[in-house]
Structure formats: C-alpha cells, structure tokens
Amino acid sequence: MSAPDEIENFDEFQSTAIFADDQALRVAVDGFEGPLDLLLTLARNQKVDIAKISILKLADQYLEFIEGAKKLNLELAADYLVMAAWLAYLKSRLILPQEKSPEGEPSADEMATRLRWRLQRLDAMRAASTRLMGRERLDRDVFGRGDPEPINVVKLRTYKDTMYDLLTAYATDRVRRLGGKVYRPQMAPVLHIEEARERLERMLGRISDWSALDRLLPLDWSGGSRRRSAVASTLLACLELARDGKVEIQQTAPFAEIFVRDRTSTPVGDAVTTSPN
Amino acid sequence: MSSVAKMIETIETEMDAPTQEMAANPEHLRMIEALLFAASEPLDQKSLSTSLPEGADVPALLAALEEIYQKRGVNLCCVAGKYQFRTASDLAFLLRKEQPEQKRLSKAAIETLAIIAHHQPVTRAEIEDIRGVAMSKGTIDMLMEIGWIRIRGRKRTPGRPVTYGTTEAFLVQFGLESVAHLPGLDELKAAGFLEAMPPSGFDVPNPSDALGPDEDPYTGEEPEEDLATGSVNLDEA
Amino acid sequence: MSSVAKMIETIETEMDAPTQEMAANPEHLRMIEALLFAASEPLDQKSLSTSLPEGADVPALLAALEEIYQKRGVNLCCVAGKYQFRTASDLAFLLRKEQPEQKRLSKAAIETLAIIAHHQPVTRAEIEDIRGVAMSKGTIDMLMEIGWIRIRGRKRTPGRPVTYGTTEAFLVQFGLESVAHLPGLDELKAAGFLEAMPPSGFDVPNPSDALGPDEDPYTGEEPEEDLATGSVNLDEA
C-alpha cells in the first residue's frame, strides 16, 4: 500500500485524503497507510492539537468512515476492521464509565491516552521524515567536487636482479646458443701439474747435470698447444720440486732456456742458481 | 573597498580568533585544502593526518579552513565524522539536478527511513507499531539496497529480532555529521516520542551507532538452538 | 596577526586591484565558485554565463576568483579557454602515493640486457643473432622503460640500425663503475660462470661507452635521404 511517488510534503499528501463525497472517499481509502494513518488524518481534520483531541469524537468519525466504506462495498483490509471494533469498544467504555476496569486491563482513559500518544508520535515522526527529506541532499542539492583528482598510486618498482643474475644469464645463454649452433668443441689437451710432477719424480736420479727443460718434456706432448701445456706444467712441477730441495733451476736471462739439475744425485754445487721462493 | 575585499575582510576578522591563530600553518593549510579539494569522498582526520607533514595540527587546520570557506560558494562540511567540500546549500537552485536514475521512494519507505534514523536500534515490530501498519518486505529491502540502512544487531527479546540502523552513506547523502545531529532530535526526545511506551519514566533511547543495552551485535543467521529455545531468550529479556 | 590572517591579507591586497573592484559581485563570485567546483569538466565563459544571473561579469569574476585562489592549495586554471580548479602544481606530490614493488626481470629480458651490456654498441639484429631467437618488441621497450638501456647510435650498415647500450642507471643497479668493468672471458671463467673451456667461437667483447668504429651518434629519426641512399652507407661501413 505504498504511494507510487515520493511525496515529501505530507500536508500536500493529506489534503488528498480529505473526502467530500463518495468518489473522494474511494480515493482516500486507497491513499491511507493503515488505520492509524486514517485516524491521524481524521484527527488533523478536527483542527485542534492532537494532544487535546476528543477520542470519542475521533472514534465516531472513524466508525462513520468505515460504515461509509462498507456501504460502497469497498474492500477494507482486516486491520481497519480490527481498529473499528477496538474503537467501538473504547467508545462504549468511555460513554459508560465503569468504576473499575477488568482485571489487568488499562482504564478507558489510559487507553484513550495511549491512542492519543500514538497519534502524536506518528505525527511527530511524519514531521521528522519531512524534515529529513527536506534536507539538502548530496548530488541533488549540494555537490562535491565534480572532477575529483584521484590519488595516483605510483608503483616504485625496484628490481632484485644482481650482477650475479646478469652474468649467469649471459654465460648460460651464450654457451647454450653456441653449443647448439657450433660443433661440440674438443677439450683442449692439458698436461696436469700433478701428472708432470709424478713424471719428474720418477725421473729423479736419471736427469743428467743441467738438462734443458725442453728435453725433460714427455715425447708425445710435442707441438702446438700440447707442447705449451707440457712446458707450463713441467716448469711448475720443477718449481715445486725446487721448493722441496729436490732440483735446482737455472735461467741466465729472461726468456732464455731453462736448465734443471737433479740435487738428489749431485752434491750441492756452486753453480749460479736461481731458486724460486 | 570593493565588495569582494569586504568579504575577504570578514573572513579575516573571523580568522583572528586566537584558537586558530597559533596552529594553522599556512603551508599545511594549503595542503589540507588541496587534499580535501581533490578527494571524491569525505576524508577523516586520520587519513588527512597521514598525508600531511608530521606535526600538522589537523583539527586546527580544519577549523581554519571551515571558517575561510564559511561564506563561500563552497563550504567545508563534516559528514559522518569526515570532511568534505560541498557547494553551499543556498546555491542549490543554481546546481540542482534531477536524478531520474535514483529510485523514487514510496511514502512508506521515507517514513520507515525516518523512523529507523531516529529510533535506531529499532526492530521491524517497533517500526510497525509506530506506523500502525504491517510493513511490506520490499520497503526494508529497498532501503538496504540503496545503502541507507543496515542490520546492526539483534534485540535481546523473545525471538531475538534483528535491529536496523542507518549507514555512513545515509549520513553522507543527507549531510549529517552523525545520527545525533538529526534535526529536531532533541525535541522528539523531550516529548518522549523516541520511547517505546508513553512517557512514564522509562529510560530514553537515543539513536546511536553503539549497541543498545538490550542489543547484541548481528552475526548473521541465529543458531537453530536459539530459535527453538525461546524460553532462554525470554529469561534474558 | 596570525599567519593565516596574513595570507588572507595578501589575497585581499591583490583583490584591491581596480579592475576587479567594480565588477566582482560577491554573490556572483560564490556562484561561479560553486559552478566551477561542481563541474565535472572545464567550463568556458559562455556556459558559465548561461548558468549565472543575467548581467554577471564573467571575465571579471574569473579574474577575481583566479586571484583569490592564486596562492592557495587549489588554483583556478584556464586550459584551452575553459576554466577549472586544479590542485596547485607544487602540491602534486600530495596526490601521489608511492607503493614499493620488488620484481625480477624475465629470463628473456635479463639475457637481452646482459648481451647489450657486454656487446654494446649492439643492434637488434645482432642481439637476435647472439641469442639465436627473435626478440619481442616488448623486451627492449621494457628495458628502456626501466631506464637500463638506451639507444646510443646508429650502425653504419645498410638500413643504419640503431645501436643499444646501457645507461648510468644500469651501472648503479649492478654496482659497476663503468661498462669496461664488466667481467671479461677470463673473469667469467675464474668466477665459475663459464666452464674452463667455453665453446669455440665464444668471445666476450670489451664493452665501451665510446662510439664504436662503425657507429654514428644517435640524432633521433634518420632523415629520409639517408634511408634512401643505403649504398652510401654500405661504402662507409
């Protein structure tokens, strides 16, 4: 039973509920929001303060209204009829005051006061609702900033990548590409230092006095990179043995030929020696 | 002196109140003005404070700003405990916009909203008692959908009915600092119309966002036991 | 006098300019302020004029408003003949919220970056050749956006492709003094990034910030003539 439109002015609304003839009555029945609303409208039509309204007179008007509606065969919701019955009862008790009200029941005056109070309260809430809806509303009467400037969330992106990541990526990427594209390269030949040292140690006692380093190289390690590796490893092995006092090494000038002498079979000589330290 | 200069002089005179004098750092004032101007939503003191330099006296700045803008075309308003610049209400005639998209509220919905606002926390039965008519389900649904009301708790009475209250969006829409700022609230209270019964010395319920003395926080569906053992709730009530 | 009052006095002094004195009706000023505040887009004088009462001197009002807001947190700006309030440009930082986010480069991106770093100056085609895969446009764009690579020149080869190199920000990120300090082959081996015997054909160039022998400095878009006369460039290369 709700009005189709927002009606913010209740005085305006209630004026539509005043019934002068049968036609208006029909309109009024449709317009009421229940029996209390009907009672309030009737009360307001008495044009006196609701606090001082005559409940007897109001009950008469209400019952009259219901009778009129019945005559017109208007369908009335049950709660209108309940209110009518209650008002008829209240009216009878108000007209014929009893000395005592039935057990546990309020007196007729108390019932009238309660009804009056409920009408006042409904009236007050109607007014409050008018006040509320009369307030300036956002985006209808008052406006916020039409073109707000939003907060820009700037992502401060930092990267965790380190030099390690960079070099790993470079090395693995490049090795992978080349590995896939070119033939699988042979491992370059290396004469390991340990190998050279073992070999030299086996030769100790058999190395002739001041032998050139070249002559101590294994025979199958001649030529190109194989020879270079053999020279380097054998020299390093000689240096290690010299440190251990097992050989002496001599070189007369930078890049000159290197000579090696076996100290295990030769007493310490007075030759010019260069001992690496 | 020009009329504009006169207006500014008025602002200045108001600004000379000693309370704002010390605290309102003009650079901070510019900042808070910019923040509030830029925002699309009301801002609370806490979020303003985090955006301003440390030590900025937000309450003093807000007070200063409110005074500066008091007579202007744009005013600083406090809604739902937050701050927002809004066009002056007397200029509504200039700016008013009809909003066809917003559902027009029925008389029943408007009344229900007003009752919920003033009587919160309030149950459906209490609303029906005030209006003297059974409420159609759609009314509450519609107000909930608009976002103006919410279920806020349960009443410690038999059946433990849910209680309704208004939302922050309601306060923002109607330009209210809090529900305690509803116009005419004091008169309604004084007349006893916010009480459940005719005045006879019962305590006066105030509309409040805090849980009422006979209200429990809303936790969704009630456990079935509670519904079955109405007697327990009766004892509690 | 309080600092705020001083600021207002400044505004007032500015407002006393005789041009605005006559025309700026304070009520009209409030209206234009509200209109501009509530507008969702910049407004031109004509549309302001139709919203304001007849006879309102829009140019004078705008001038007055501009002066009032000149030193404030919000300014009245005119862009393309339309007016709007904008946050004062020196307060733009208030509207920025920085959110740190840590990321890692994608595999393709870090490999590309490593190759640019070691092989610079290097063209896109060369990067693709080294990596053996076509590169997505996004990779270079992303590295440029981060600011770690830059276009440093053009190669004197047909088509004059741009050459890429690393930036100062790259050196900072990876803790390098200069690109010449990038580890070479031996250091890569020694540090265990490469096997003792890298595949044949594996060389690690010595990167440099200086222009390469076949590199021209980058001067933006190539003039059309250069693109047309590829043969000339071929000779040069």
Would you give an account of this structure?
The complex is a heterotrimer, with 1 copy of chain A (277 residues) and 2 copies of chain B (237 residues). Chain A has 277 residues and is mainly alpha-helical. Chain A has helices spanning 10-16, 22-31, 35-45, 55-71, 78-95, 108-133, 163-181, 193-203, 224-243, and strands spanning 152-159, 211-212, 247-251, 258-262. Chain A has a 3-stranded antiparallel β-sheet, covered by helices on one side. In chain A, a hairpin with a 6-residue loop joins β3 (247-251) and β4 (258-262). In chain A, α3 crosses α4, α3 (35-45) crosses α6 (108-133) and α8 (193-203) packs across α9 (224-243). Chain A starts with 9 loop residues before the first helix and ends in a 15-residue tail after the last strand. Helix content of chain B is 47%, strand content 12%. Chain B is built from 13 helices and 6 strands. In chain B, strands 3-5-4-6 form a 4-stranded antiparallel β-sheet. A two-stranded antiparallel ribbon of chain B has the order 1-2. In chain B, a hairpin with a 6-residue loop joins β4 and β5. Chain B is elongated, with a radius of gyration of 22 Å. The model of chain B is unreliable at 14-21, 199-206 and 223-237 (pLDDT under 50). The chains are: A mainly alpha (277), B alpha+beta (237). Chains in contact: A-B, A-C, B-C. Chains A and C meet through β1 and α7 of A and α3, β3, β4 and α6 of C.
Descriptive tags:
heterotrimer; A: 277 residues; mainly alpha; 3-stranded antiparallel β-sheet; 4 strands; rod-shaped; disordered C terminus; B: alpha+beta; 4-stranded antiparallel β-sheet; 13 helices; 47% helix; 12% strand
